[in-house]
Design a protein that fits this description.
Structural class of chain A: alpha+beta
Order of helices and strands of chain A: HHEEEHHHHHHHEHHHHEEEH
CATH topology of the largest domain in chain A: Beta-lactamase
Keywords (chains A, B, C, D): Acetylation, Hydrolase
Shape of chain A: globular
Family (chains A, B, C, D): Belongs to the glutaminase family.
Number of domains of chain A: 2
Largest interface: A-B, 35 and 35 residues
GO biological process, one term (chains A, B, C, D): L-glutamine catabolic process
Helix content of chain A: 40-55%
Catalytic activity (chains A, B, C, D): L-glutamine + H2O = L-glutamate + NH4(+)
CATH architecture of the largest domain in chain A: 3-Layer(aba) Sandwich
Radius of gyration of chain A: 18 Å
Number of helices of chain A: 14
Oligomer: homotetramer
Strand order of the largest sheet of chain A: 2-1-7-6-5
Strand content of chain A: 5-15%
Number of strands of chain A: 7
CATH class of the largest domain in chain A: Alpha Beta
Protein name (chains A, B, C, D): Glutaminase
CATH superfamily of the largest domain in chain A: DD-peptidase/beta-lactamase superfamily
Largest sheet of chain A: 5 strands, antiparallel
Chain lengths: 305, 305, 305, 305
């Protein structure tokens, strides 16, 4: 039987030299103050066993990892109707570019670029006056902790520099692909991005996607098995910005990353893995976190390929 | 135990209404004359069992499926050095577009768009005066048949309308990313694209990639397990033109398609599947073939996700 | 001596069949209600003689023609400093596209596309809390009428559908090329666009640019001769959206058009010409208006070329 | 009366400090060997007077200046039919970019970018088996010298590095906008580009365009007045690569430049001016040459604006 505890310790030792090489996200003032030289990792097996190493109990800003939550929630509520408003293809350009969005008439390439996540938020805002609260409740449910919260200082910090997201939202509004006000959608988006979790919590939060759409402990089916499988496919092809191909090549697991330095990865049918290290590589993904996952799949022989 | 024979029969019945909906590739004169309403499918299990249905014994033009052969051969010979000349990211645009190639200074996004495949051919041409023969020999080895051949009429037909590939090759030459003459590379490329196989042969040809890089019957290791896994990841993220995300979403298997209507898909560790139906959807992938694979993963519960 | 009155009558007769062919701008609700089948034209010679025909006394919405006013005012106040924030090249794409703006890091190609005009407004807003009033005062001075006004219903109508301009402004804000708030700049921009004039007034308003930068009747030098000449050059290369080349080819005069159907054209050293017909061609320029100017240069042999 | 001789002497003195600042074109081997610190200028007045200064009698490679000759010749032979195959708008991107050409389905933006010039050559090749000879004969006629020649060493040098032009030609061939073989068109194109003239000869060669389309000494009408006016407009909006707006702003005359360092400019109805200095600015136009023309229009007050 695989000794995950030992493997995590090995990885922890291996990543140490990398912790000084990444750069923390600079465009959100609050995030730019985080110390890059931190690393945590946690594994949540579907049988309930959990393993962790390093700063796995330290809260961090989920940022784009929450795009997975808003997508899963919108998909569970609206089903395939969401695909009339967002595509399922890799973008081939930066996560916040407007070029492709203009060429493709305001329909984002996928739900994991900013434009696509704003559309998910818009869909949720059309169902509820407080889409941010709905997403927070969902986040609490899937990681089984009622004390998960927004970090309002981060939300405010992001809101103050959200000019590009405003540009994206207005462009989609111009094309008719945003039904609520730009302000409403951006507000909710900045708040959901600010949700904080620890690695241990995040691994647990991802477990329903490793478990064919059903939360392991409550047995509530969030998504049917087919939909869950499809979300995994989307994570693999589009979950790590414009480095999804490289990530799939190196790691070989469905994953979603955030500029806070977190990455959630899945071994379908077996486990969810969360890793956090705030130093980013040039593609905006956690440098040490990506390497840690690459080592994990090598040491456990757990790629999907 | 899964009854693959019955499953293939079910799929064969299911695809019948779709056979009239696709359109055969029109830009290569020879291919445009093929009857769209044909369908064949074959499964090659790593234990040697094989299953097939329909026109699985009918030869067809592999076209872009051969990009997998030239990549595997170049990768096996040159190792990671090939990645200095071609990327590993989805392209986000058509398989024969020049836009991204110009922005990215002549380095193709991945080895499965035409530009990337031309670079693989160029690499092989630098090793051998007859790169087309080298690829043909490789194709013969991996499907264990010495009678695999080019279809020279198709090669010539394609060569005569290869203006866009010439444009791509010259643009890369301008950027210094083509070391042999444009004529040499295009010649070899058109010939390799013209290789014909049956579904039964193609499924067998893909089996080494399902088998961690080793040819099952000869036990020759073409690629090590890690490299084979990585090729699978590339197939999933980039193997079906600008519909890779959609294909992963629907089918959930690594695959490589061609405009001849063939698709090779892999269930890592278990089997290779080949399907052929010449009617294409608007993304250039076999319409009935994609649906057949989607049905296959549903009926066998064999997605990687 | 050229009989301008007779020439205008000839043109008036010639354009009648065209009046039903153009389409009024549809994206601003208030403008979409205007009757397309109207035509007016006025000539203001630098010696004070004026000629007019048709609906030359009818007020219309100047829209993008006012980009010329904000540019001239900003240029007169700030001099060459404005060119650090806006370019002088034709854009090669639509007047409200974001693609080039993103590639060129938030620096608009020229002051006559929306992005560039927003930068001019931003510059004026940095000098004055009411840049819209400053532009209105300037408009009043150059056409020598104190009763020139905003059309607030049009301004409000435009503001309500200004999503794309908001997107452009936020994108420039993101790149640091907007110093005031997006709201401030868009407000002022929508108001200045709503200024109404008659053809007679507009021709007079343009006369300082035909007169080497000096208002003929007051002899106030708005721009020195060299700067005036340079603005004329900008009008010729960039003044009629993505049809500037076609316009120069057909008409051969510096001109600025607006989606309200107005066009101001200049014969340097001789006269300013205003034409109005609300039916637009597919490039967003007045269909009958462009034709009228083409006829005018033919009949008077007054091209600059 | 303007003392052109004195003005040219003044300019000659003024440009001296600039001669070391430009860089000679490096992509054509033969051109890269030219000494940058050279300068010549010549004026041909329509009454036959000529003025010159510096190295005005030195032959240089006309390169893209010859695009004017192929356009004028094709236009004189085919009339407006040429505009079905090439546009009249500035390109907004580099002279040899493929991006816009692909978006616009193989129709070049204007006849002065490489793609457009290749179409002109194609048109002439469809009329004559030796389009290069036809252009050479035309060049000889318009400058009244039978000893004008190709520089075959330059032509060959250019041909050997013409990969990007091959890419452009093949892309147009793919779109059906090239009727002769790529080889035929590129051959002719490289030869016409290699034509050499002195400033004195080039100024004379341009005089028919300053003279409303009629060669002054022979009174042969190459183009009617209207067509000649239109070519002037095209030169102004598109004649100096992606710096046409800047050039119009600074110089204010229709002009065509080449990477050999030559520029031909026109004062309609008065004169043609040729300037040569091989050091280029970053937009590919002669650095000292552009400045010399700017000084010329200032000193003679001869802008068209």
């Amino acid at each position: 039987m695989t000794d995950y505890a030992a493997i995590l310790e090995t990885i922890y030792a291996d990543v140490q030299p990398l912790l000084v090489q990444g750069k923390v996200a600079s465009y959100i003032p609050q995030l730019s103050e985080v110390d890059a030289a931190q690393f945590g990792m946690a594994v949540y097996c579907l049988d309930g066993r959990t393993y962790s190493v390093g700063a796995a109990g330290q809260k961090f800003s989920l940022q784009s990892v929450t795009k997975l939550f808003s997508l899963a929630l919108a998909f569970s509520l609206e089903g395939d109707a969401i695909w009339s408003r967002v595509g399922r293809e890799p973008s081939g350009s930066a996560f916040n570019s407007l070029v492709q969005l203009e060429y493709e008439q305001g329909k984002p390439r996928n739900p994991f670029i900013n434009a696509g996540a704003l559309v998910m938020t818009d869909i949720l805002s059309s169902r509820s006056t407080a889409s941010d609260t709905a997403i927070l409740q969902f986040a609490r449910e899937i990681c089984d902790r009622q004390d998960i919260e927004f970090d309002l200082a981060v939300a405010q910090s992001e809101h103050g520099t959200a000019h590009r997201n405003y540009a994206i939202a207005h462009l989609m509004k111009d094309f008719g692909n945003l039904h609520n006000s730009v302000e409403t959608v951006i507000d909710s988006y900045c708040r959901q991005c600010s949700i904080t979790m620890t690695c241990t919590e995040l691994a647990k939060a991802g477990s329903f996607l490793a478990n064919h759409g059903t939360i392991p402990w409550s047995e509530r089916q969030v998504l049917d098995a087919s939909s869950s499988k499809r979300l995994n496919a989307l994570m693999l092809t589009c979950g790590t910005y414009d480095a999804a191909g490289e990530f799939a090549y190196r790691v070989g697991l469905p994953a979603k990353s955030g500029v806070g330095g977190g990455i959630l990865a899945l071994v379908p049918g077996e486990m969810a893995i969360a890793v956090w290290s705030p130093g980013l590589d040039e593609t905006g993904n956690s440098l040490a976190g990506t390497y840690a996952l690459e080592r994990f799949t090598s040491l456990t022989v757990r790629s999907i390929f």
